[in-house]
Amino acid sequence: MKLLHPTHTEADDGWSLVVPLKPLALAKSRLAAAAGARLRPRLALAFAEDTVGAALDCARVRDVAVVTDDPAAGAALAALGARIVPDSPAAGLNAALAHGARAVRAGRPHARVAALNADLPALRPAELALVLDAAGNFPRAFLADAAEIGTTFLSAAPGVELEPAFGGASRLRHLSSGAVEIRLAGVDSVRRDVDTGEDLAAALALGLGPRTAARWLTAAG
């Protein structure tokens, strides 16, 4: 586990979340079969808006930094109150997350930081608070996705690097890196990322956020 070297170990109040978002034209390609080519990027943006909106409504969250180079997404998420960080590495998901964490700590060196997927359209602020409370007990911690293969959340305490290893079977990679797996009941909305039509149906059963619901339910008739 890589440690940073802050001048003190006191954490700043609240969590800073880092949310990565691909250009909308490229996002959620596996959803095209269910949503169609025109609706897919609109849903990708709605997922991100509902994720960021719920995160900002969480009492434990101080701020949200979205790493993206998509101007339309950046404008929409900035309007919700997110900070937009350009994806200057342009080297994939994990490079974007590490860059976002560095951007947060450039201004707040002692921030608690956590990476959060941008495709959690059923996210509930109270459930996110439970995950953040649990994560605060460990130097690094993560939450597996609903399939228990990937990861939807990864945290790092003050003085600890995030070391993201998202993508594919990331649950095992995060375990191998020394991060502690958070095992909690009642946080399904934080685990339900959406890549396929089946995932979207599962998120619908949990209760979609308002922007995703408006776009999906209108399209579905």
Automatic annotation (TrEMBL):
Pathway, per record: Cofactor biosynthesis; coenzyme F420 biosynthesis
Keyword set, alphabetical order: GTP-binding, Nucleotide-binding, Nucleotidyltransferase, Transferase
Binding-site residues for phosphoenolpyruvate, renumbered to this chain: 151, 167, 170
Similarity comment: Belongs to the CofC family.
Coiled coil: none
Protein EC: 2.7.7.105
GO molecular function annotations of the record: phospholactate guanylyltransferase activity
Annotated InterPro entries: CofC, Nucleotide-diphossugar_trans
Protein name according to UniProt: Phosphoenolpyruvate guanylyltransferase
Function per UniProt: Guanylyltransferase that catalyzes the activation of phosphoenolpyruvate (PEP) as enolpyruvoyl-2-diphospho-5'-guanosine, via the condensation of PEP with GTP. It is involved in the biosynthesis of coenzyme F420, a hydride carrier cofactor.
Catalysed reactions, semicolon-separated: phosphoenolpyruvate + GTP + H(+) = enolpyruvoyl-2-diphospho-5'-guanosine + diphosphate
Domain of life where this protein originates: Bacteria
UniProt source species: Streptomyces tanashiensis
